[in-house]
Amino acid sequence: MLQRSSVDKVFHALSDATRRAIVERLASGSASMSELAAPLPMSLSAVGQHVQLLEESGVVVTRKTGRIRRVELRPEALAVAEHWFRSHRARWEQRLDRLGSILQEATPDAENTPDTKTSRP
Fold this sequence. Notes:
This protein is mainly alpha-helical. It has a single domain, classed as Winged helix-like DNA-binding domain superfamily/Winged helix DNA-binding domain (Arc Repressor Mutant, subunit A, Orthogonal Bundle). It has five helices and three strands; from the N terminus they run ααβααββα. Strand 2 (60-65) and strand 3 (68-73) form a beta hairpin.
């Protein structure tokens, strides 16, 4: 099986609405599995599967203390996706700027444009 890059793993992890909700909740601080599951319409086991995928992608880390499993966000993992967006944004902005320049050069001035109405004798 092919190894996916870290950016692929992060985007895959964030492709699900439930996992994005978990990440949004963790942005305000760590939480136990039961705290994460409480507002979600699914079982604790299902939330655990989502957290496992987030952990495999490096977006979160879990720590077990006694019987409590706490989940923490790893913001540096999200920086991978942010870097990808920034590099692609810069590239597309350059392309659009070039296209704008080309279109501006190719568009004749309105004063120099011949009248498109045809006159009939």
